[in-house]
Amino acid sequence: MPAVATVETPATPEATRTSLRKLRTFARNKGALIGVFILLFLAAAAIFAPLLTSYDPTSQDLSSAFLPPSWQHPFGTDDLGQDILARIMYGGRYTLAIGAVAVLIAAIVGVPLGLVSGYAGGATDMVIQRITDILLSFNPFLLALVLVAVFGVGIGTVTIAAGVGVIPQFIRLTRGQALSLREEVYVEAAVAFGEGSLAILIRHVLRNALTPIIVYATLNIGVTILVAAGLGFLGLGVQPPTPEWGTMLGTARSFIFKASYQLTFPGLTIFLAVLSFNLVGDGLRDAFDPSLRE
Amino acid sequence: MSGFSSYLVRRLAAAVITLLGVILVMVLLVRALPGDAARVIAGLQATPEQVEQVRLSLGLDRPVPVQYWRYVVNVAHGSLGTSARFETSVLSEIGHRLPYTIVLAVCGTLFGAVFGIALGVLAATHKGRWFDALGSMLGVAGISMPVYWLGILLIVLFSVQLRWLPIGGADGLASLVMPTITLGVFSMAVVSRMTRSTMLDTLDQDYVRTVRAKGVAEWVAVRHALRNAFIPILTVIGLQFGTLLGGAVLTETVFSWPGIGQLLVQSINNRDFPLVQGIVFVFAAMFIVLNIVTDLLYSVVDPRVRLYR
User: Fold this and answer.
1) pLDDT at position A173 over 50
2) Model confidence over B251-284: pLDDT tens digits?
3) Nearest-5° angle of CA B130, CA B132, CA B134?
4) Are the C-beta atoms of A83 and A243 separated by less than 8 Å?
5) What is the pLDDT of residue A2?
6) Which of B26, B27, B85, B37 is nearest to B270 (CA)?
7) Is the interface score ipTM higher than 0.85?
8) Which of A140, A294, B224, B247 has its CA 20 to 30 A from that of B168?
């Protein structure tokens, strides 16, 4: 059906002013700023790793294995003589990317399902809700564990496995948004103007649900990083010699008596990465969508 | 039928449907094993006869619907199949280990509830002061802490350096201390965040202001507020229990705690899929039952909450 006229979601100068005010609220949030700072720091270390360290993250040198932190090796070396600082910097390219891509996958699958579920209602809604219940009754980590057990360990499998667990979060969120937005006057107007369901879903419902989706995505990157690194810790994630942070922690665990310094830095980095996403997510939520507070 | 029992029947029916879905997912996943599933499960050293034995006992020679139906019928008869590795019943393997997981999960929940509520109340009553800031920091740090790293830090400090606590295993109360803290910190963080925000809401209510106006000690007013803030807090504690079960897998592995979480990781490494299926089923069932119990408790604590019309 050709659209006779389209109803645009309101975007007045006032709306622009509101967004600016929200941005200022975010910028005044100390926690959020600390989060942004840590995140930029970790991302820069990962991106510019070749410029920042002369060590190769995977070149082994058994003669310099188990060296405690020193000027040559600020974080020490591991059991194969690899420089731990270099491995952590390069490792960000894996752990951070896996976390972000996993959430992206979850959003790409979950958001359309949630929108359709909330907007269509009826039998479609019921089927999607039952699937959500089933996914929710596995917890994200358990689901990821079973998926890698079946499909094998590797960067691709680990990324997908970490993402599947947070799909239900996105379904629930967007379903709720679609349910409430369906009642809005401008959506009713669009229906009256004869706009198709798909156009309405994308143009109005999705556009307005975007803020909470971004908040949720940020908070869930923390979850997917924890899940992916947890798999690595159990030896069921990204495999050595790839310098994934959780995998490094899992390998170092065998040397807890001999070289506990090997366990300090990879764990601290995972913690800081998750912390930064949570701080930024909390800040975005408080500034842009306080209604999402539990 | 009264409103309550029809509500309960509906909830239980939904629970059964979800569990049927969980079984379906597990059956499909075993089918999706790359290569010959029976070969993978039987192991590399297995003779062709043993492989055929596994194929027959798991129903891998039949179409998926038949295999699925057989698993469901088995579950209905109280059987979760036979472990491929130990050649014993999955249910008895789980039965030996489950009590350890439950003890750990209950201790972790109690730890999280007690310290989380205390932190949250103190933060709410000291809003805007340094303790509140400290509480918020602890809260966000707690939800960001990888359980496996926290466990290792505790081991390095209390077992390796100070030699106060055993490094792992399940031998007396001392061995329960570090796993409880490791598992409980996440719940503590979530509960304290929730307690703070609900306490701030209730402390602002008229009846608390009235109590304060009567000139009673501050803790009396706080007690009044806490009683009413308790409902959302209870829900969060109930929901946390599910997350806790996931954390139990990692915590048990770090501390060699002989629960079903550790057994799950071992059976994944052994490619013992009948055991993996059984453990996942038990985890999912526990999660679903706990959700129902939490909702029921909710209505007990606050009679205004009506679960049914």
Assistant:
1) yes
2) 999 999 999 999 999 999 888 888 999 999 999 9
3) 70
4) no
5) 43
6) B85
7) yes
8) A140
Residues of chain A neighbouring B154 (CB-CB closer than 8 A): none
Query: C-alpha B140: how far from its chain's center?
Result: 20
Within 10 angstroms of residue B270's Cβ, the number of other Cβ atoms is: 16
Contact status, residue B199 vs residue B229, Cβ threshold 8 Å:
yes
| Both structure tokens of B245 | 């079960």
Which of A212, B299, A228 shows the shortest CA–CA distance to B308? B299
CA angle in degrees (0–180, nearest 5) for B30-B32-B36: 80
Residues 185-244 of A with CB under 8 A from B: 222, 226, 229-230, 233-234, 236
What length is written for chain A?
294
User: Rounded to an integer, what distance in angstroms lies between the CA atom of residue A196 and that of residue A199?
Assistant: 5
CA distance A289 to A73: 45
Which amino acid is located at A201 in the chain? L
Answer whether A150 sits within 8 Å of B136, measured CB to CB: no
pTM above threshold 0.80: yes
Highest mean pLDDT out of A160-174, A280-294, B66-80:
A160-174
A117: tokens are: 């579920």
- Ordered DSSP codes for A100-121: HHHHHHHHHHHHHHHHHHHHH-
Cβ distance B246 to A222 less than 8 Å, yes or no, reads no
Give dist(CA A94, CA B193) in Å, integer.
31
How far, in Å, are A20, A52, B70 from residue A90 at the CA level? 36, 10, 49
Q: CA dist A289 to A21, A115, A212, A254, Å?
A: 13, 19, 7, 45
- How many Cβ atoms are within 10 Å of B128's Cβ, its own excluded? 8
Please report the DSSP string for A118-160 in residue order. HHH-HHHHHHHHHHHHHHHHS-HHHHHHHHHHHH-SSHHHHHH
A83, β-bridge pairs: A77
CB pairs under 8 A between A and B: 124
């997917």: which residue's tokens?
A224
Average pLDDT, chain A: 86
Residue A161 and residue A146: Cα distance in Å, rounded?
Answer: 9
Residues of B with Cβ-Cβ distance to A151 under 8 angstroms: 32, 34
> For chain A, what percent of residues have pLDDT higher than 90?
35
- CA angle (B76 as vertex; B75, B78 as ends), nearest 5: 60
Phi-psi region of A289 (alpha: psi -120 to 50; beta: other; left: phi over 0): beta
Q: How far is B145 from chain A (nearest CA, A)?
A: 5
> Could you tell me the two tokens for B289?
């039952």
User: What is the CB-side half-sphere exposure of residue A148 using CA atoms within 13 A?
Assistant: 33
